[in-house]
Structures are given as structure tokens and as C-alpha cells.
Design brief:
single chain, alpha/beta, two-stranded antiparallel ribbon, globular
Length: about 230
């Protein structure tokens, strides 16, 4: 069983729009529809859990899933205040179904509309082979590590620096265990993605898999130029 967890609970404060960024329109449809359609059409994905804010749940059911015929969505659930809380709510929903050892999850940002079936296939295969994988691409730019005053501390070799994307894919049992471990240890405060949770837990190593330079996340008004 492979489930895609698509996150659409963010408020998009950096975008500065009234509507959350994942519901902005691109080519006549909300961005979230583009993300959902990729998993809907992927032969790798059995079902989708859509996570959104509580006040958008009915909108997602009627104006997204039903209107655009996203039939693989098995549940629309409420997210939390933080990204990891939204993912955790979805994981608990899946845990109720049992069979976590042979169940895999792909977690994807709803505001990342350019994901492709090929990326989904690569991540699914990597998760089944390694247990934990994340999409990404080698950085095109030199990266500097700085201290609190903005002074350069080091320059990591560019060949070893990747820009991380979603989907990120895991064996469900592994991701559940990693989340529980970090929550019990109080180490969730600065978590930014699910790969970081697995890394920090020490339960598995995360394999990076080629995504695409076009697989961007729409976060700020500057990103909107990629939609034209």
C-alpha cells in the first residue's frame, strides 16, 4: 500500500494573499489540484490523504476533490499549527488501518504543483528499497555556513550540497517510530521536514533521489513568475 499525504494546511503568510497559496489559481485551477492530480494519475499511488486547515475541509471536499474528480482521496483531515503536527495527524489516521510495515507514505507540499509521475515513481522505489528517501537536486550555487553575526564559518563543497524538495517517502512504521521518538525527547521545535525527523531519530539513513529543478514550492510573490 502506498499513500500520498498532501499538505494544504499552511496559511501562506509570506505570500501576502488573502487566500492560502495552495489555493491560488494556475492555468484555471487551484495549485493544490495540480499536486493532487499527479498522485491521482500515478500508478504507484493507491490513495491520498489531504491535510488542510479545519475551516477549509469542506471546501477541499466539494470544490477540490469532487469538482476536479480526485477519486483517490480517502480522507480530508485537519492539520495542526506546525507542519510536523499536520503530518502526524495524517500518520495516525493511516495507523488505524494497520499493516504499517508494508505500507509506504509519500509526503508532499500542496504548494509544489510541478511534481511529476516520474518523480513519484523514483521516490516510491527508493522508499521500498531503503525505507527513507527525499527528492532533491544538487545546488547550483555555492553555499556558505555563517555564525549568529553573519560571518562565514565554512564553505561546504558544492558537490555535497543538495536543495531538498518533496515528495519525501518512507516506510510508514519507520516514520511513526521516528516521530514518536522525537516527540518523547522534545526535539521537534526546529524540524522543517520529515527527512530531518528520520535523520535526527537515528533510526534510518535518508537516501536522496533526483527530483527536478522545476519542482519548486510556491512560497513568496516572486515565485509566481514561474506560473506564467
Amino acid at each position: 500500500m502506498v499513500t500520498a499525504i498532501v499538505l494544504a494546511a499552511g496559511r501562506g503568510k509570506r505570500m501576502g494573499t488573502k487566500s492560502p497559496k495552495q489555493f491560488l489559481e494556475y492555468e484555471g485551477v487551484p495549485l493544490i489540484v495540480k499536486s493532487l492530480k499527479a498522485f491521482e494519475e500515478s500508478p504507484e499511488t493507491d490513495r491520498i490523504v489531504l491535510v488542510t486547515s479545519e475551516d477549509y475541509m469542506e471546501y477541499c471536499r466539494k470544490e477540490i476533490c469532487e469538482k476536479y474528480h480526485i477519486r483517490k482521496v480517502s480522507a480530508v483531515i485537519a492539520g495542526g499549527a506546525e507542519r510536523y503536527e499536520s503530518v502526524w495527524n495524517a500518520l495516525l489516521e493511516l495507523e488505524k488501518c494497520g499493516g504499517t510495515d508494508d505500507h509506504y507514505v509519500l509526503i508532499h507540499d500542496g504548494a509544489r504543483p510541478f511534481v511529476t509521475e516520474e518523480i513519484i515513481a523514483r521516490l516510491t522505489q527508493a522508499a521500498k528499497e531503503y525505507g527513507a528517501a527525499a527528492a532533491g537536486m544538487p545546488s547550483k550555487d555555492t553555499v556558505k555556513i555563517v555564525d549568529e553575526e553573519g560571518v562565514v564559518v565554512s564553505t561546504p563543497p558544492r558537490s555535497k550540497v543538495w536543495i531538498i524538495q518533496t515528495p519525501q517517502a518512507f516506510r510508514l512504521s519507520l516514520l511513526l517510530d521516528a516521530n514518536r521518538k522525537l516527540m518523547e525527547e522534545g526535539k521537534m521545535a526546529d524540524v522543517t521536514d520529515d527527512a530531518m525527523i528520520v535523520e535526527r531519530s537515528g533510526l534510518a539513513r535518508v537516501r536522496l533521489v533526483e527530483g527536478s529543478y522545476e519542482n519548486i514550492k510556491i512560497t513568496t510573490p516572486d515565485d509566481l513568475k514561474y506560473l506564467t
